[in-house]
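Summary of Year 1 activities. Much of the first year was spent building the evaluation harness for sequence design. The harness presents a backbone, in tokenized form, and records the residue chosen at every position. We chose the following record to illustrate the format because it has been used consistently in internal testing since the harness was completed.
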């Protein structure tokens, strides 16, 4: 998203400007059956290799479509106004970023550095899929500046990988971990998915135990969501077999919490566990509802446009289809970098009012183990709004899903009547986290 050039530094709250950037790399060799992300399927092999029966895989090194996308992505970055705050976190997501050639990833990082600056010690994360890279490639990513990788493992059962439409094997997983370690990556995350079709509680426990045995510094455990537009959405109905029952998926969540915390991982966010010092700094930007740049097809930026006193913010989404995204970037270039002008809202922009911001802050902040500061909430949104939220949450406090943490510790046995002036409101682990959607629905119904 562009900040209007009509604004001056005096009218922009510099503290609210982004220090983080998300880069969307949409290319995949195939679309996983659960995926509804903005992706472009490029196939397993080059057209000529397929015709001649050769094994040459399609990558950023030999794909014209990937090369063109990188060119347009860098153009978008260069048309973005900056006020000189260097980036503290960068995240390459997808899609499959590990289809990029090292030179392409380096070019993006150089462009970001030229436009915004990259702070010393910045966290630079990259999603990589087993079976899509080799040792030399991941060593190149490390040399280019990537210092955190997230491996999309998903499951340790071959039949479940196949049922998901994943292209990698269990052998690929262990090879990928070995190469990442040889490339001297210290900060390594593994992604797992629970609630898959035909997945049993025993399968899930086995995946967790095998992930723990690999000793990553971070583990993400996502519960499958059936999206209507996906292959799974056309095959399965939520709550029906062969999907695990709600009771089973709830027990899967509790099992992950039990095994991972026992293995020394801090359950710092609903779906995420980390060894000490290895929480994902970039993702915390989202959960703390801080500003960030988004670049690439389907990416979203969130930037507070004016002072915090005005309470204004905007989310701007890029088009989800390749041609439309290219046209969108071309329009920015023709507009000489003005993009969203002062007093004008793009058709892709969503302005957020104070109620939107409050609900976003509650929805995101309650995902974190430490929860939300009542002092900060009252300061930002006013006592009346927080008293209203406080009253809405009373039933969940009563049943033990929410606690108030003060200097004296957790207070879950005090009368839930008047609004305290300090302390942190947080969900309990695992039950509060497990039923967070019930709590959030109640809050949204109250305010909307």
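For this record, the design step produced the sequence shown next.
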């Amino acid at each position: 998203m562009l900040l209007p050039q009509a604004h001056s530094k005096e009218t922009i709250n510099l503290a609210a400007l982004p220090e983080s950037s998300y880069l969307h790399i949409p290319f995949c060799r195939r679309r996983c059956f659960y995926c509804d992300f903005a992706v472009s399927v490029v196939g397993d092999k080059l057209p000529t290799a397929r015709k001649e029966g050769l094994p040459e895989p399609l990558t950023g090194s030999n794909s014209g479509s990937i090369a063109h996308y990188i060119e347009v992505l860098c153009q978008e970055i260069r048309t973005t106004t900056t006020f000189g705050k260097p980036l503290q976190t960068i995240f390459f997501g997808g899609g499959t970023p590990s289809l990029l050639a090292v030179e392409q990833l380096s070019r993006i990082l150089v462009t970001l550095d030229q436009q915004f600056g990259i702070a010393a010690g910045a966290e630079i994360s990259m999603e990589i899929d087993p079976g899509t890279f080799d040792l030399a490639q991941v060593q190149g990513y490390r040399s280019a500046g990537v210092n955190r990788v997230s491996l999309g493992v998903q499951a340790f059962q071959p039949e479940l990988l196949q049922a998901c439409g994943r292209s990698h094997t269990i052998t690929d997983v262990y090879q990928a971990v070995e190469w990442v370690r040889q490339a001297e990556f210290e900060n390594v995350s593994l992604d797992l998915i629970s609630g898959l079709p035909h997945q049993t509680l025993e399968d899930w426990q086995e995946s967790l135990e095998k992930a723990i045995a690999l000793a990553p510094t971070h583990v993400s455990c996502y519960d499958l969501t059936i999206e209507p537009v996906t292959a799974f959405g056309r095959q399965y109905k939520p709550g029906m077999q062969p999907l695990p029952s709600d009771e089973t998926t709830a027990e899967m969540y509790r099992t992950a919490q039990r095994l991972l915390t026992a293995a020394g991982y801090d359950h710092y966010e609903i779906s995420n566990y980390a060894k000490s010092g290895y929480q994902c700094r970039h993702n915390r930007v989202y959960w703390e509802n801080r500003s960030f740049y988004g670049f690439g097809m389907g990416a979203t930026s969130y930037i507070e446009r004016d002072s915090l006193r005005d309470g204004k913010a905007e989310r701007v989404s890029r088009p989800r289809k390749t041609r439309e995204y290219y046209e969108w970037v071309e329009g920015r270039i023709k507009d000489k970098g003005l993009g969203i002008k002062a007093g004008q809202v793009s058709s892709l922009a969503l302005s957020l009012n104070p109620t939107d911001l409050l609900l976003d802050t509650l929805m995101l902040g309650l995902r974190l183990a430490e929860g939300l500061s009542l002092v900060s909430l009252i300061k930002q949104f006013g006592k009346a709004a927080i008293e209203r939220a406080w009253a809405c949450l009373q039933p969940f406090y009563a049943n033990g899903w929410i606690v108030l943490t003060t200097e004296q510790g957790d207070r879950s046995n005090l009368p839930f009547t008047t609004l305290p002036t300090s302390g942190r409101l947080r969900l309990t682990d695992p039950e509060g986290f497990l039923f967070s959607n019930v709590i959030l629905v109640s809050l949204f119904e109250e305010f909307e």
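The CA atoms of residues 76 and 329 lie 6 Å apart. Quantitative recovery figures across the full test set are reported in Table 2.
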